[in-house]
Specification:
single chain, 84% helix, 0% strand
Length: 377
C-alpha cells in the first residue's frame, strides 16, 4: 500500500511539473521535476528517472543553463541504455542533438540526430522519427539546404498529423511558415502561421505562441508592414519574458533590431541588437548572436561607419563558421556569400574615399579586396 501511494505521488508530482513547464513557469517546473526525480530514484524506477532527467534538462536548456542541461541529458541517456529503454535512449539522443546544435556544434548535432532517427525507425517509433526529422529540418535550414529542410518538415508534419499530436503539428507549421517567408512565399507562410496559431491557442502553449508571433513579425518586416511587425514583436517579447526564455528573448531583440533598421532608425536598431548579443552570449546561443552581429554590420554600413561594420562582419563570419563546425564552407554559402558582398561594399566605399584624395593609390584598395577574397576562398 505504501509503495502504491509513493507511485501515485510520483505521478501527481510529475504531472504538476509538466503543467508548470507547459505554462512557461520554468522555476516551478524545475523544482517539481527535481522533487519527482528524487522520488523516482528512491523507488528504483529507471524509466521515470530517465524521463524526468530529460525533462529537467529541457527546463535548464530553455532557461539558458546549457551545462546543467547537458549533464541531465547525458545522465538520462546512460540510465536508459543501462535499462534497455530504447524510446528513452532515442529521446535523450535527440535532446543532446538539440543542445549541441544550439552551441553551434553542427557535426556532432547531426550525428546525434542520425543515431536517434535510426534507432526510432528500427523500433517502429513514428513519433520520435518525426521529432528527429523536425530537428534535422531546422539544421538543414540553418545550412541553407532549403529543399532538404522542406522535405524533412513535410515528413514530420505527415507523421504528427497521423498521430494526432497537435502540439508538434503546430511546431512544424511554425517552422514551415518561417521557411516560406525566407523563400518569399508570402501566402504559404501566412497560411502555415495561421494554422499553427489556431492549434497553439487551443493548447494554450506560450512557447509556441511566442515563436509564432516572432515569425509573424519577421514576415511583416519582409513585407514592410512595420506596425503589424511591432505589434507581433511586443506580444512575442511579453510571452518570452514571462516564460524566462532567454534564447527566445535574444531572438526577439534581433527581430526588433531588424525592424528598426528597416524603419531607418539606426540608433534604436543598434541598442536592441547589442542587447541581443549580451543575452545570447549569456545563454550560449550562437545563432541569435551571429544574426545580431550580421544585422549590426548592415546598420553600421548604412550609416557609413565602416570600421564598426567590418568589425561586426568579422565577428558574424566567425560565428557562422562555428555553426558548421568541421563541415565544408559550402554548407553556409547562402549566409557567407551575403557577408562577403557586404565586406566588398565596405572596401569599395573606403576605396572611393581614399582614391579620390590621391591618384597614386588608384586601384590599390580594389586589388586588396580581391586578394582578401581569394585568400578566404
Amino acid at each position: 500500500m505504501k509503495l502504491e501511494r509513493s507511485v501515485d505521488n510520483l505521478e501527481r508530482l510529475t504531472e504538476a511539473a509538466r503543467g508548470h513547464h507547459s505554462t512557461g513557469e520554468l522555476g516551478r517546473a524545475r523544482s517539481s521535476f527535481e522533487e519527482a526525480l528524487e522520488m523516482a530514484r528512491a523507488l528504483g524506477d529507471p524509466a521515470s528517472e530517465a524521463d524526468l532527467l530529460r525533462n529537467l534538462g529541457t527546463v535548464h536548456r530553455q532557461a539558458g543553463d546549457l551545462p546543467e542541461a547537458q549533464q541531465c541529458y547525458e545522465e538520462s541517456l546512460e540510465i536508459a541504455e543501462a535499462a534497455g529503454l530504447m524510446s528513452a535512449v532515442t529521446s535523450a539522443l535527440n535532446c543532446l542533438g538539440i543542445l549541441t546544435q544550439l552551441r553551434g556544434e553542427v557535426e556532432m548535432a547531426t550525428d546525434y540526430y542520425r543515431r536517434a532517427r535510426a534507432l526510432a525507425e528500427s523500433t517502429g517509433d513514428d513519433l520520435r522519427v518525426a521529432m528527429v526529422d523536425q530537428n534535422l529540418a531546422t539544421l538543414a535550414q540553418i545550412r541553407g539546404r532549403f529543399d532538404e529542410a522542406v522535405h524533412s518538415y513535410k515528413s514530420a508534419h505527415v507523421r504528427f498529423r497521423a498521430l494526432g499530436n497537435h502540439q508538434l503539428t503546430a511546431s512544424i507549421l511554425t517552422n514551415l511558415g518561417f521557411l516560406h517567408a525566407e523563400l518569399q512565399q508570402w501566402v504559404e507562410a501566412e497560411n502555415c502561421l495561421d494554422d499553427a496559431f489556431v492549434l497553439a491557442h487551443e493548447l494554450r502553449d506560450p512557447s509556441l505562441l511566442g515563436a509564432i508571433e516572432l515569425n509573424r513579425a519577421n514576415l511583416n518586416i519582409k513585407q514592410n508592414a512595420f506596425d503589424r511587425a511591432r505589434d507581433c514583436l511586443d506580444q512575442a517579447f511579453e510571452i518570452k519574458a514571462r516564460a524566462g526564455d532567454r534564447g527566445g528573448i535574444a531572438d526577439t531583440y534581433v527581430a526588433y533590431g531588424s525592424l528598426f533598421r528597416a524603419m531607418q532608425r539606426p540608433n534604436l536598431a543598434v541598442a536592441h541588437l547589442e542587447k541581443a548579443v549580451d543575452i545570447a552570449r549569456g545563454c550560449e546561443e550562437r545563432l541569435p548572436e551571429a544574426e545580431a552581429f550580421k544585422t549590426l554590420a548592415l546598420v553600421h554600413l548604412g550609416e557609413g561607419r565602416n570600421a564598426e561594420a567590418l568589425s561586426c562582419l568579422n565577428t558574424a563570419h566567425k560565428l557562422f563558421l562555428s555553426l558548421q563546425a568541421a563541415t565544408t564552407l559550402s554548407e553556409l554559402d547562402h549566409r557567407l556569400d551575403g557577408l562577403e558582398e557586404t565586406y566588398l561594399a565596405v572596401v569599395e566605399q573606403w576605396a572611393e574615399s581614399i582614391e579620390a584624395k590621391d591618384r597614386y593609390t588608384a586601384g590599390h584598395c580594389g586589388r586588396v579586396a580581391d586578394y582578401a577574397v581569394r585568400l578566404a576562398a
